[in-house]
Amino acid sequence: MPVYVVTGTNRGIGLEFIRQLVRDHANTVIACVRSPTSDVGSLQSVIEGAKNSNAIILDCDISSTESINRFVGTLAKQQVLGRQKVDFLVHNAAINIKPEMNSLNLEPDLVHQMITANVLGPALLTSALLTAKLLSSDVRIFHISSGLGSMAVSLDHKPRQSAGYSISKAALNMLAVHQAEDIKAYLPGAVVVLVDPGWVKTDMGGKNAIYEPSESVGNMLKILHSLEQSNNGEYFHHSGRRVPW
Ligand SMILES: NC(=O)c1ccc[n+]([C@@H]2O[C@H](COP(=O)([O-])OP(=O)(O)OC[C@H]3O[C@@H](n4cnc5c(N)ncnc54)[C@H](OP(=O)(O)O)[C@@H]3O)[C@@H](O)[C@H]2O)c1
Fold it and tell me: Is the residue at 138 inside a domain?
């Protein structure tokens, strides 16, 4: 009965994660959305479509410490997880505000918002779940990064795009490298990795993207389910190859 927590699941890649996870009724799936007023129509259809799936929708705004703590408090209640703990934590939710910003016209408020959501969100949610003792001893923590978070990939990317977002994903990469080491003091069996989903057809990726969410997420779940200790701190492309830092 593995337990999955996925953030940002009302659309895009997060919704596809839920679509694929609820097919297996052995999974307990916690589908997080930004707020109680989020449009969860598609998410509800996906959950109801997989009859008798074991999935619930909870709100968790990764830009809000208060919301993160409330979410973890809800999970800590016996009726949500019982005696189970989180086996797979997928940090998927993220924002890319004003992609046309480059490094010479960064708008501080927008960059702050992206750092808050894309870096501090996954950091604080992981810490809150750890502190509440809700992570299983061999939890897999999966950070959805981007090729734009890689220095090496970005150097070859012309024209360079989404400078603020790219900076936030590079910071996320460093967060994961630190978490991979720091979490060992508490959960020696834990594995923390980053994955680049590729250019995916979602609201963020746009219509011209290469991959369907189904292909990208199918590949990412294969990686998630095959992680070993030796992978701790690694940065994958959804195809399975490593992304250069
Ligand atoms: N699509 C691509 O080509 C691509 C490429 C590389 C990396 N990625 C990464 O893949 C992940 C998913 O991207 P996507 O393409 O599915 O993006 P998307 O279509 O824009 O969906 C983003 C999801 O994150 C949620 N979200 C945003 N801010 C949130 C917050 N503060 N709290 C909770 N949820 C929040 C959104 O909820 P709302 O509906 O409430 O806004 C939505 O469910 C992201 O980490 C992204 O950086 C995507």
Answer: yes
